[in-house]
Amino acid sequence: MSPSGALIAILPCNDLDASERFYNRLGFARPDGERPAPGEPDTYRMLSNGKGGYLHLTDAVEGWLTPGRNPFGLYLYLESVDAAAREFQQSPEDKPWGMYEFAVSDPDETLVRVGWPTRLRTGAQ
């Protein structure tokens, strides 16, 4: 598959380490080869879930992300919604807009919805 036409979110973060750990729990990681050499700045992180999902994390400008006022949101289409929900101690549910989903907030209170179309779920009517 060619990356031409792919759209990847670049998410500003107050604490890159905490954000990277959070997104690791959703299956996103960066290859060891993408890590800078010791002593080099580590202010931009390119994560992938190995299934075509990519997320870039970057340092936020100081004071830009205020708790309770973060305007950013992400939606992760994930067939294994129930497994992800267990990781975050959440209970997914079928929504009127046709998605089986749950929502959590990352360390900077970015809204992260994880869902899969209800009609595509195994056993869905």
TrEMBL record:
InterPro entries named among the record's database cross-references: Glyas_Bleomycin-R_OHBP_Dase, Glyas_Fos-R_dOase_dom
Domain Glyoxalase/fosfomycin resistance/dioxygenase: 11-112
Pfam families named among the record's database cross-references: Glyoxalase
Protein name per the record: Glyoxalase
Signal peptide stretch: none
Organism: Bradyrhizobium pachyrhizi
